[in-house]
Write a sequence for this structure.
């Protein structure tokens, strides 16, 4: 496969990873723990959208709206039910708890929607050919969707009071607290924000490939890689990290079997942790 | 089920609980004693299982190996190879903070599974390896159980010795306060690495016994749900840091896990996969409840008394939790 095609596919994958990583990096930054259920939250978002597409016949962009809302609600409920009560203890307890949450969410998806593959739309869509590049309509929709979300994220973080408060808290919790940032409300909105983004990431991943209960879990490692590469707590770093990881995973097929794409993301992550633990955009050291 | 069937099931149940107990003792050495966060248990478990299966199994054109060596050779090789892999991995990652180490070890375990899946010539790939002989070719559940129990007794004695030894005290010191341990002149990285390697060797040994007990292994058996998560639930439920607690926790969680299958077996046959998911969901919920209600587990850790030194009255007064 030529480099142009790999680049295009890498950007498509990278933009999905970026959306997952923005939410993860904000949770990491604001709540100071590695949220292992993030990938499975993606899966939940994707399947909720699937339900509206499949049962009500809604177009995917419309089905995305209830999926975003419900996934945010689930994220907030998980925080209230489990994480909130564990916040005073060590972050590793929260991490173990989130690992349990991950398995519970994945199990629920299997119980409700079954273990088989699903797709949003059946039928053949004819790919466009532009200068030797094969572009499927779905991948184009994924790109558009991701760009729209990134613009929304930028407007929210740069221009709203809550967005600024979230960034302030992920920058320096103590300083933010002293400056009168309403901590509880910021935590609440961080979950809403992260939940919404993971839902979109899950839907786009489902459009790009297909829906399986392990889809989010399989994507967790590249999302962590993107988060760490970009710098923990750095939303713009997460976008950059997502694109770099997505491209690297796709370029890797030039030199090794595609089964090892995941290993590429992992090796980059380990390299960053050892050589530059603060990430590209100088994330917080927790 | 006939009485004989029940007897065999009982032996098998206890032996499998024992194998999980070996993994849990290894994890307790890493996390409970030393604060080394390993989310990649399944990886070392798998390496041990494959190493032993390839050495002790009969030749098979489907994969490499098959040297029909005796189980002790396979078990020792499993420990050495798991430990060596842990040494290489640990040398690169052991300095990482606990949450990063968790992400890293989880990733390593997934990559190990990926490699096993994609190197069919060596490991049989997704087809797995069949015909792994039972311990000493005895084909008896009783022999298996005796072997497993003997291993547990030895390992338990070792980890308890380690816990009260100066080595164990340094590790707990590092776990509680890394900076203080460093200030006291302890080479923190090396101690953490030692705990990681020894604990992973335990996991490799557990893998060898598992392969020998089941007779068949495939990458599916080493998914994080079973190979890693269940062990963590056992550790947390029993009491991280307390070796007796960890063994009791292992037994109880294995009991819950096994009997939950009796319940889900009542579901209609077409819902078999769903039944598995229900069990995973319930065990996840169990862990959440334990973390919320009793994060120290059933048997909280006690700090060990120093060997060979009787406790003075003043000491017991100041540590009421131990009296």
């Amino acid at each position: 496969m030529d480099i142009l095609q790999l680049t295009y596919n890498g950007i498509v994958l990278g933009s999905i990873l970026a959306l997952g990583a923005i939410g993860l990096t904000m949770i990491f930054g604001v709540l100071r723990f590695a949220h292992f259920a993030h990938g499975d939250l993606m899966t939940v978002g994707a399947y909720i959208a699937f339900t509206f597409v499949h049962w009500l016949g809604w177009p995917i962009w419309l089905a995305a709206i209830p999926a975003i809302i419900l996934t945010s609600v689930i994220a907030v409920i998980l925080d209230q039910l489990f994480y909130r009560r564990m916040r005073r203890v060590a972050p590793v307890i929260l991490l173990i708890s989130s690992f349990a949450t991950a398995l519970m969410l994945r199990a629920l998806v299997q119980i409700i929607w079954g273990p088989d593959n699903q797709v949003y739309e059946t039928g053949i869509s004819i790919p466009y050919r532009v200068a030797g590049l094969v572009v499927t309509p779905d991948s184009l929709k994924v790109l558009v969707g991701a760009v729209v979300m990134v613009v929304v994220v930028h407007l929210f973080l740069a221009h709203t009071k809550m967005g600024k408060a979230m960034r302030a808290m992920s920058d320096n919790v103590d300083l933010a607290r002293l400056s009168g940032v309403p901590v509880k409300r910021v935590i609440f909105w961080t979950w809403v924000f992260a939940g919404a983004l993971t839902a979109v990431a899950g839907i786009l991943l489902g459009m790009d490939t297909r829906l399986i209960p392990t889809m989010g879990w399989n994507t967790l490692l590249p999302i962590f890689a993107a988060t760490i590469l970009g710098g923990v707590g750095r939303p713009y770093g997460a976008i950059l990290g997502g694109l770099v990881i997505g491209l690297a995973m796709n370029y890797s097929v030039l030199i090794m079997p595609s089964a090892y794409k995941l290993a590429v993301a992992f090796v980059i992550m380990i390299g960053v942790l050892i050589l530059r633990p603060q990430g590209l955009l100088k994330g917080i050291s927790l | 089920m006939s009485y004989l069937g029940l007897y065999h099931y009982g032996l098998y149940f206890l032996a499998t609980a024992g194998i999980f107990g070996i993994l849990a003792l290894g994890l307790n050495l890493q996390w409970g004693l030393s604060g080394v966060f390993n989310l990649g248990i399944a990886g070392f478990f798998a390496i041990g299982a494959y190493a032993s299966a390839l050495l002790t199994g009969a030749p098979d054109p489907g994969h490499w190996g098959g040297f029909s060596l005796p189980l002790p050779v396979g078990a020792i090789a499993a420990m050495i190879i798991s430990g060596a892999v842990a040494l290489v991995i640990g040398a690169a990652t052991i300095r990482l903070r606990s949450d990063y180490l968790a992400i890293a070890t989880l990733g390593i375990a997934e990559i190990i599974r990926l490699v096993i899946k994609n190197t069919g010539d060596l490991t049989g790939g997704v087809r797995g390896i069949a015909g792994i002989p039972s311990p000493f070719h005895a084909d008896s559940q009783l022999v298996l159980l005796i072997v497993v129990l003997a291993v547990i007794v030895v390992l338990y004695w070792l980890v308890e010795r380690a816990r009260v030894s100066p080595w164990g005290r340094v590790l707990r010191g590092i776990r509680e306060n890394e900076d203080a341990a460093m200030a006291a002149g302890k080479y923190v990285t090396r101690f953490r690495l030692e705990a990681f390697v020894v604990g992973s060797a335990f996991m490799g040994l557990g893998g060898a016994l598992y392969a020998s007990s089941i007779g068949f292994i495939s990458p599916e058996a080493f998914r994080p749900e079973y190979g890693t998560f269940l062990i963590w639930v056992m550790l947390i439920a029993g009491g991280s840091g307390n070796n007796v607690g960890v063994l009791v926790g292992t037994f109880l969680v294995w009991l819950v896990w096994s009997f939950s299958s009796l319940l889900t077996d009542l579901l209609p046959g077409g819902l078999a996969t769903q039944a598995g998911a229900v069990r995973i969901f319930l065990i996840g919920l169990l862990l959440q409840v334990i973390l919320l209600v009793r994060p120290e587990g059933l048997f909280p850790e006690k700090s060990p008394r120093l060997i060979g030194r009787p406790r003075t009255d003043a000491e017991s007064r100041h540590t009421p939790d131990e009296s």
Notes: Chain A touches chain B at residues 33-34, 36, 82, 85-86, 89, 91-93, 95-97, 99-101, 103-104, 106-108, 110-111, 114-115, 221, 224, 228, 257, 259-260, 262-263, 266, 269-270, 273-274, 277, 286 (CB under 8 Å). The mean pLDDT of chain A is 93.
